[in-house]
Amino acid sequence: MAAPQALTLASLHDVELCGHAAAGDRRAFGELVRRHGSVVRGLLRRMGAQAAEADDTAQDAFMTAFERIGEFRGEGTFAAWVKRIAARHYLRRLQKERRLGELGAEALEEAEARGPGTDTTIDLDAALKSLAPPERLCVSLCYGAGLSHAEAAESLNLPLGTVKSHVKRGLDKLRSRLSPDGDGGQRRQVGG
Q1: Residue 112 binned pLDDT confidence (cut-offs 50, 70, 90)
Q2: Which of 69, 147, 153, 188 could form a disulfide with 160 if both were Cys (CB 3.0 to 4.6 A apart)?
């Protein structure tokens, strides 16, 4: 009779599943993982994690979420809550590996090696990969994980102004890369 239980869990709202999981129902939490696992892994990939690293970090984030499920108050969505946890786990991994400083140098080398692009069709993931790693991290944290600029600054251990600058530069670059005419959506008028 596992099918009726699965059907029942699938029909519950995330907040209800969290309540069941807080009461010890592992299957309810499994349903939350099923619903939101790919979104969490996608965020981590956009932040710069390789596939295996995104899988590992997502698993760590869901384990933390399971341990702390009683803290989820339902004030926001479960997806946003677990994405914040995942983003913080990923940042801790980066800090442990001390890659944050090295990422800036790698980005400059990558940008020089790439040269100017000529492809006019680009997807968001490719556009995010074109950003310098600090910009990609800040944009992903603020727009992908839903952190405020202040929360991102605290998570990255950076000044608030630096995070705001990275986000602004990153968004400007994304607008330019993703606009149909390649110049940020501002078409030049000729002879007018």
Answers
A1: low
A2: 153
